Amino acid sequence: MNNIFKFAIYIFLTLAFAWLAFFVGAKNQYGDLEPTSQYLEENNSIPKGADLFPQSMPGVAQLGAKEYLSLGCVTCHTQQVRTIDAGFDVERGWGKRPSVPRDYILQKEVLLGHNRVGPDLANIGLRGYTREWLHKHLFNPQILVEGSICQPSPFLYDISNERSSGAINADNKADDNVSTIFIKPSLRANRIVSYLQSLKQDYELPEMSFIETQDEDDTEDIKLAEVGTAKDDQVGLPTWLADQIASGKEIYSKITPGGGMCVACHLPNGLGQPGAIPPLDRSDWVLGDKERLIKISIHGLMGEVVVNEEKYLGVMQGFGQPLGSPLNDQQIADVLTYIRNEWGNSVSAISPEEVKAVRDSEKDRELTAMWTEAELQKENSSD
Ligand code: HEC
Ligand code: HEC
Fold this sequence. Notes:
Helices cover about 35% and strands about 5% of the residues. The protein is mainly α. One heme C binds near residues 264, 285, 286 and 314.
């Protein structure tokens, strides 16, 4: 009987944690997103006079979104540049950076799409197509792309053999026998094209910078998130330690790939975000028990935690998770050594061997099983 009771409790907890992770966590991180500037000041405020992003779509484009939806374009086109680990969307040239939830907050119709039969359209407005090209493509894609299976929508156009004002020549160049045809866009066609042209994620956000791709020439305008205060008093450190700190700082500030993304949540100043993300600066979690710190780095942390006497309720996935940008033992050691020696922190380094030891001791634990503060305390007191 007792066992059944335990079993039920266990199932309840499992479901409760999953719920927490998915809903409370998502709400906490994304629930009240607002437009923001591309970069924030040190103190987490929006610089004076900075443009805010995302910007709302022109009204005609919003009407176009409805048409796009009603024509079923979402069956074959997504509008979401995926993270580096989930695909190679940035390398494919589908965007300068992965899409983030904030990109969509001003769109009345969020059309993420279902399948990817055709290219992702989150940045179709940046691909340099003219209105004329987009109209011809909407009218009949095969005029422009041989053998295209993209859906033609000729019913959106008035077709005529005579040129009239506002009409576009839609000859199929590949076929000489076709007599000259001119198409005149309807209101609906114009709305759709305005919508397509408005689709662009050409701005950075504090939580996501542009990603550098290998064959990118103009690397100047691609910036990684900036780390605030560099300490110049690292001069006296032994080189191995200075190297570890420098590498850790890079991991801390880099979004992905190879980055830990820490800066997006804990910010360059390590102060986190009041009420939502706990601080790393002078945190007892960072400065205290190394084993506990490594454990939460590998498996993540969720549920209520107390950091410097303040309560937080959030979710942080482990840095070794396949869905994040998985960090190896050396990288985890470096980033932890960095946060233990930045801002007001200055304590001993963490070695890759120490990370490996904890990883080995927890090898039976599912990678997705995040720690809770309560569980960590229980483990500690039962040692
Ligand atoms: C049956 C699946 C399918 C449907 C439905 C579909 N498309 Fe496509 N689309 C494709 C494919 C495949 C391509 C790539 C070939 C091409 O460029 O024509 C494409 C290409 C495109 C492109 C050019 C993208 C680029 O980067 O070159 C645009 C714009 C586009 N589609 C818009 C639309 C619109 C608007 C609709 C709804 C009216 C739509 N598509 C419906 C499959 C589809
Ligand atoms: C998506 C946002 C996010 C990212 C990215 C993130 N964290 Fe966290 N971090 C959190 C949240 C939220 C908590 C508190 C979790 C809870 O409430 O259970 C936390 C807790 C912590 C803690 C323990 C509490 C504290 O404040 O000392 C440490 C240490 C930490 N994070 C370090 C890091 C490091 C290092 C990285 C990068 C490798 C990182 N975090 C990336 C959101 C994030």
